[in-house]
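#struct-pred

JT: dropping the chains for the assembly here, can someone run the whole complex?
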Amino acid sequence: MKKKVISLGDVMMRLSTPGSSRFTQTEMFNILYAGSEGNVASALAGWGVHAVHVTRFPDSDLGRAATASLRKFGVDTGSIVYGDERMGLYFLENGAMQRSSKIIYDRFDSAFAHIQPGMIDWSEVMKDAQWFHWSGITPALSQGAADVCKEALLVARKLGVTISADINYRRNLWQYGKQAIDIMPGLIELSDIVVGGVTDFENSLGISVSDFEMGCKEVQKKNPAVKKIANIHRESISSSHNKIEGLLWTGKELLRSQQYDLTHIVDRVGAGDAFMAGLIFGWTNEKTDKQTLEFATSSCALKHTVEGDVNVCTVQEIESVLNGINVGKLLR
Amino acid sequence: MKKKVISLGDVMMRLSTPGSSRFTQTEMFNILYAGSEGNVASALAGWGVHAVHVTRFPDSDLGRAATASLRKFGVDTGSIVYGDERMGLYFLENGAMQRSSKIIYDRFDSAFAHIQPGMIDWSEVMKDAQWFHWSGITPALSQGAADVCKEALLVARKLGVTISADINYRRNLWQYGKQAIDIMPGLIELSDIVVGGVTDFENSLGISVSDFEMGCKEVQKKNPAVKKIANIHRESISSSHNKIEGLLWTGKELLRSQQYDLTHIVDRVGAGDAFMAGLIFGWTNEKTDKQTLEFATSSCALKHTVEGDVNVCTVQEIESVLNGINVGKLLR
Amino acid sequence: MKKKVISLGDVMMRLSTPGSSRFTQTEMFNILYAGSEGNVASALAGWGVHAVHVTRFPDSDLGRAATASLRKFGVDTGSIVYGDERMGLYFLENGAMQRSSKIIYDRFDSAFAHIQPGMIDWSEVMKDAQWFHWSGITPALSQGAADVCKEALLVARKLGVTISADINYRRNLWQYGKQAIDIMPGLIELSDIVVGGVTDFENSLGISVSDFEMGCKEVQKKNPAVKKIANIHRESISSSHNKIEGLLWTGKELLRSQQYDLTHIVDRVGAGDAFMAGLIFGWTNEKTDKQTLEFATSSCALKHTVEGDVNVCTVQEIESVLNGINVGKLLR
Amino acid sequence: MKKKVISLGDVMMRLSTPGSSRFTQTEMFNILYAGSEGNVASALAGWGVHAVHVTRFPDSDLGRAATASLRKFGVDTGSIVYGDERMGLYFLENGAMQRSSKIIYDRFDSAFAHIQPGMIDWSEVMKDAQWFHWSGITPALSQGAADVCKEALLVARKLGVTISADINYRRNLWQYGKQAIDIMPGLIELSDIVVGGVTDFENSLGISVSDFEMGCKEVQKKNPAVKKIANIHRESISSSHNKIEGLLWTGKELLRSQQYDLTHIVDRVGAGDAFMAGLIFGWTNEKTDKQTLEFATSSCALKHTVEGDVNVCTVQEIESVLNGINVGKLLR
Amino acid sequence: MKKKVISLGDVMMRLSTPGSSRFTQTEMFNILYAGSEGNVASALAGWGVHAVHVTRFPDSDLGRAATASLRKFGVDTGSIVYGDERMGLYFLENGAMQRSSKIIYDRFDSAFAHIQPGMIDWSEVMKDAQWFHWSGITPALSQGAADVCKEALLVARKLGVTISADINYRRNLWQYGKQAIDIMPGLIELSDIVVGGVTDFENSLGISVSDFEMGCKEVQKKNPAVKKIANIHRESISSSHNKIEGLLWTGKELLRSQQYDLTHIVDRVGAGDAFMAGLIFGWTNEKTDKQTLEFATSSCALKHTVEGDVNVCTVQEIESVLNGINVGKLLR
Amino acid sequence: MKKKVISLGDVMMRLSTPGSSRFTQTEMFNILYAGSEGNVASALAGWGVHAVHVTRFPDSDLGRAATASLRKFGVDTGSIVYGDERMGLYFLENGAMQRSSKIIYDRFDSAFAHIQPGMIDWSEVMKDAQWFHWSGITPALSQGAADVCKEALLVARKLGVTISADINYRRNLWQYGKQAIDIMPGLIELSDIVVGGVTDFENSLGISVSDFEMGCKEVQKKNPAVKKIANIHRESISSSHNKIEGLLWTGKELLRSQQYDLTHIVDRVGAGDAFMAGLIFGWTNEKTDKQTLEFATSSCALKHTVEGDVNVCTVQEIESVLNGINVGKLLR
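RK: done, full complex below.
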């Protein structure tokens, strides 16, 4: 029987300029539908997991297109609800070399931001689920979204569903009167697995440390439910060239994955979500912590080779790369 | 010396599906920047008029792209102001045959909707102007926009600038607590030239008649300042095939233009704005009422042959068509 | 609870030249995945029906892409099986005016053509189903496909599932040693609803008549199980301009739908499948025969306005067109 | 053994705006290589004729691309010569409905315009040839081109090669100091077959008549070598809709082809060349005058259904259309 | 007089995803026509060689498009034969960084696979030829293709035509009941020049060595007719970054070319064919072994800079690169 | 008040092959309008400078499109004049790795090449100007262009406008009978700021030195008006990878900027113009020589990250890069 993983979060229309075009140059946008938690669900669905994504879309052709996009990835869209408001959007301009990539968000007032407790029947949604995933973007969008997130977490804990949280701190969200530090501690304390780095710890949890390992220990001290903490360490040489390495604090020790040299980046958006999806896949498939970390980091690396927010590479491709098999060969 | 025409109104990013694609099918949008009053200004600028468009854009790459687009048409963008909010958007799906074209607006909360009296120095903007043009879309967007529109009208009247109004009634705008009937009469009474039909008269002016000519007489009775009233009469055989005819109430008689059979429509959005621009061009160039009406209707017809909201056809092309010269020939 | 409709048939990769390009001119193909019965399922899924499509795909990225495409339309792909062989293909060149559209099939030896009885657990698939749909293309592909079709029909009859058959006679299929006349009578006699015209009756059932109504009576005489027979009557003025009308023999009388003048055809492939889907939708939703015929014919007409084999228009759009509401208007 | 047909003339790079875009809107051009006489050669090569096109290209990548394009059509490019000058160009904007199509030529000073007598070994080129084709564009380009044209005609006559001439009068060519009336009579008098209408007769031959048949008789009176005269009669309802009919003066009587209603024109450039090619094909394949005229007119009609200057439709397609077989059907 | 080189082999339609798109993401394919031996012929034709490619295509628009494509490259297509079967296809997904490029072949049952001895008049084709080229792909496709290959080799030897063989071992071909080791030795023993590496030697010739030079000596020992053996040594750092070096066993010594660092690969398919073409060009133009190897390796390197299977770079460009002249400069 | 900068020079239509396509492969060109001095004006306009570009265009849709393009960048086009001749063109093929980029110019006989003294009212144009910029391309095009350049320089000197000159030596221009060495010394001696390298000094000024600093001293010795000399030092590793460094001779010392490693070049055309624009921006904004050099070199580097001839990056982006802030980060 398939593993069942539940995720919650807004999915936006992504409008990206073609090739190296800038916002001020383009006469067209490529579009697709994406959002941090939905990206995790989409990757997992592609790997054979029963991934249920919960969100709220406008009851319009754009909302229907977003649902169809998730279905195409294989995500179970049966728990999505619909409302009157607008589709959240984000505009993406791909950088090159010394020129940075840029995102302009236009997501306030989206149908998801208007979600309210009671709209989702969480007991029904979480039935038979192994895992629930949320990220710090959801409580940043509106009080309603924060409340729904809490509502879900309480049901998940009650049902013994494992909970993962990607802190995903973004300063320019949190516009509805609350700050991350007001809300996130109460949500993280309900979570089993956390992804984040020292900046996330400081802004969302009030933990100021300069070292990841020290930070992990502090997070666990304050949040006894948290069992493991992971993060991607990224070195940005240019928009076209990064190096990444995965880190995992197992509760006892700090594991490091092999490093990947990403010399010709195709699209780096969603790389963190590919890492998150890899962690969930590893642990729900009884991989060891080390195997899970290597799988997740390889997933993250391969995400940089494909367009879009979702890692559409297969389990076999991810494992080939982490094992150094056929890398860069022409497969006939 | 060039004629100077001022216009006021929001300019949105237009995102249209390519060819016959539907919203639920497309993976890209063609984009350009458009809005009823800015379309009028753009057409006029292309015909050699000094057209100044007044609007408010977000202070972002998208706002800068919109300004650049107006500049490309030759519009004077020196009076545009910038603010913090978002760019208004509209999504367009082109119909075909029995399938209707569809527009999804996403324009609430745009930078323009946040315009407030005092932001524009109207005395400066209107200096040496012949004409001021506004439409019923502006007061429909927000109280601030309605107030700025009134502010502009009062300055225009004081300076003796001719005022044209396109009633442009759209039921699903007017969401800020006021209805057209609350606001429009106070603006139309300040205007010299009006474009509208019986539906506009009923919804925006409270004048219920079934006949255009009767309606025009009623409008003038209630609004002594209004001198002339024009409209396009359109017969929609299908999304691909329409017939149009221009009507002009001169205050004394009803003139009718020749009819145009539009058998292979390329893009009908902005056709009313092309008509409006033609009227302004005719009257500011001392054409007779009949000549002005024929020019405006030919402009409207030619707009259906080009993509985008703006009639990019030249004065010479418009006059060739209305005179039946070289129509449909291959010009080498 | 949703209606459940089962369909069986090959789904191919469709490779179409862009715009008016010919096979000998093009440097690219637009692709999508399509096949007569899967098109029916896709339209039904878009209208809210629980549509389960049964097929066999190659276990490759192309097979996975085909599955994802069906999922995007909302089709339940849980009963699809996978094998080693190739993806069936068809190449499409769109005609214009006097130049005919052309299809080059490259579908022999597809994974579906290698389907064998026993590969599908029909009792499981048909559980709780209202309807089973098949077409004459399936038995034309291979002995195995013909056998699986029979296998499905027998289970459907046993479970009391209504059966629809689209005769879909194509001379250049039937290459495996059998002719339509050898196989089709044994399958049609198990069906409740038939779509076909006089050519189909002659080639697939051995019934030679020149008149549709007479043919229907003959079909029923030979096949007592058949309750209703429908067809689209098409007049091809050119590749760009057709007229269509729906016909339905109710068992008692011949009903005719309103006629549609299709003056600017976008894509006529799949129009028959849109008609078929409309019939199934009407009858499973307790519409009368007349309502069902009008719905199906309007669905067929609207299919000509969209690219691809599938009618992606909504129930509301189909009903607006058949009721003459807003046809060809710009909907804002 | 294949028929051998020789043609002479400049081949330009054609740069056309995509879809309905105007010159002032486009950010790209579709390109191909075309010219009146080369278009004739390309159509003939597609129909199995050994078509040798003689021209002069710049010795650059653009010249090589033009040669490759002719080769792709199957034209024998072995007699092309190369020089230092530039590639001739023409820019094409496709019209729609009332908006005319426009061509901007940029062809002066092309490598072909610098051709000089002696550069082509005509005795070698014309060996075993049945037919030589030239048009009035060549002598219009430069004195050198006019001289080379005469040089070719004299060799052709000496060798008994049939000569066809398309008068193709274009007022805005003829910029090198000579007018058509100075040059064309001396070339037409060497030709066997002429294509042209009353405007061509007047401007190029000084024959002023209002009626085609009368004009033909006058042309023959002055030019005893001319045996037959043909033309396309075109009615331009709009850029999207034309009607055409072929006319042929056999020397004894005026034949008229069936009329074609071209309701959705894809690209009308090169239609005259498709007619010319059809005439040459008919007569070199022993068709009667009537058959030849019908073939040529059907070829002309089908040209309007394809992009580019060349009729890429096959002999079978042309004959199906003129016989009314399968017109507008979907051929599977 | 031009050198005449004959090649034999299937040419497929290549369908490649645009940019970095994956098979499961794309909605279009770029197409061109390619195959190992035809790629060699196409490169040679571009360099001024009289290259005759022999193959068998379906008698359809797709077969005609393939022929036209070869003609565009300048290949002599006069010896191609046509039959009823299908066009072979291959699908290509371009990799990026750690993600490998993938090819899905769909070439079984192609018209070429149905070629039979007697279909080609080899004595006629080989008249005046200097060189005949074949590869190990042809005998892998079918018994008929293997027989035709042998037939050609025997005629070539009889006429004293130099024979080159590219072993090109591909495990997943050879599906018709024979293995490479059954067929290839009998064909290689008739060849003068061989391209291959240690894997090819092992699988196709049964020679197991770990070192190229040792392998060459063994090949020559077993095949006295073989005079020279060459290969590309490739280091695959990633899909985007390779290093290559050419190796040539002259019969006496092992020559090594300069190494090329290919840091931003555009398209690596056909690189081996560009090397092969370079060898043939060098030796038929009386270059020394060292010059020939450097030319061939530079040709191989430049192939990685262009899209498609064929090296479309000129002789002058190849020589500039191998001499380090203007490399990477902007040439105005 | 805005700085006012005047520039003079031809603006061509640039036709570039898409992606990595070669001239002999492409079926389309991307177009934009560009030229060395207009590129400088466009960059400056984007940075808020009042940039007036003076040129002469054909009075056609192409000339109007070129004007519109400059307007889109914000350039003041009010001083452009129009004439009868053609638009200058250049064709661009982007290189990759070892394959060089290529430009084919087709600019002779352009409307600008026909410019004559007296066509521009320089006293009016230069009113209130701070700066006049010209380059060595203008006097290379025609005697008229050289004369107009001199005319402008004399007015500028008289009015005390600072003059910058980009020597821009191109051997294959200078076709009208004069060589650079005949004309350039008389123009450089009127200039304050010079951009050029040792090759430029030799060919345009007759100064033969092997070292930039020595050359600068010689230039100043001969041209006392010249105050500062700058250049970009470029190392071309491949078409995809360059390193650049800016050099500035202040009259007293040689300053060097930081070096930029350009590892994934998007488009290097116009990089020198971006450097030139950066110098003008720096000095007209009271930056120090060192700050100006760093700004100009960062501008040059960023130009390599965008398509087109113009640096469309903002002042803030340029300063971030030179200060190493957020380089290669994803900015949300």
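JT: nice. The interface with chain E takes residues 15, 22-24, 26-32, 60-62, 64-65, 68, 86-87, 89, 91, 93, 102, 104, 106, 108-109 of chain C (CB under 8 Å). DSSP finds eleven helices and 15 strands in chain C.
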